[in-house]
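Notebook entry, structure prediction.
Reason for the run: the old model in the group folder had no record of what sequence produced it. Starting over properly, with the input documented here first.
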Amino acid sequence: MQDGADHSQIHKRRRLRSTARWLALLTVFYLAVAYALLPMLWTWRDDDESPASTYMLTVTPQGIPGDPINVGLIGSKENVLRAFAAAKWDPADAITLRSSIEIGASVVLDRPYPDAPVSTLLYEGRRQDLAFEKPIGKSADQRHHIRLWLTSADAEDGKPRWLGSASFDRGVGLSHDTGQITHHIGPDVDAERDTVILDLSNAGMLSRQYQIPGRGPTTSGRNGGGDPYFTDGMVTVGVLAP
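New structure, fully documented this time:
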């Protein structure tokens, strides 16, 4: 009886080890395909877009077209930080191992993480300088968010000019282009642009606002995660109150 029980335990442990090995191999295969092979193929793909067609458009680190620029702000970095704090938007944490684990736990366990990191996008060859977010519900699964880049050209009055890309994260899933774990955005990026400007205005942080041409009217855009979006192509610029 004892020998039979021991043999059963040994067989069970072997099956568990075999299952663990297969899971490890599948994990390595997924990571290699989603985070190395497919991004590499995107990098090597024939780029049919002219420089003009990428105007006012962000790209992923792999060069995949990302979210359109749809918000502008005029003011110093201190003005920007104070304005979003007054509008009750939280600055996003940097992407680290710890913050990546925390955002995963926030989504899976439905617990708050108001400073959850946002993925890196590039504009004019640089990653975002600032990022802010406002969660919807308990977790980081759904949230308003914006990335901001300090541009090299100042505004007409000599104040710093920021350009930003605002979109709404509607849930976590896999990228349609690479299979990487990512947030999927809502298609109406104009609504998110208007939300940012309205929140800043309601907080008394804007002295005026106006619009400038941006990406241009787009009805079938796709961002870096393969999510569809549409926009009137305008950028709403807010002048921050001194």
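Summary: The chain has a mean pLDDT of 77.
The old model has been moved to the deprecated folder.
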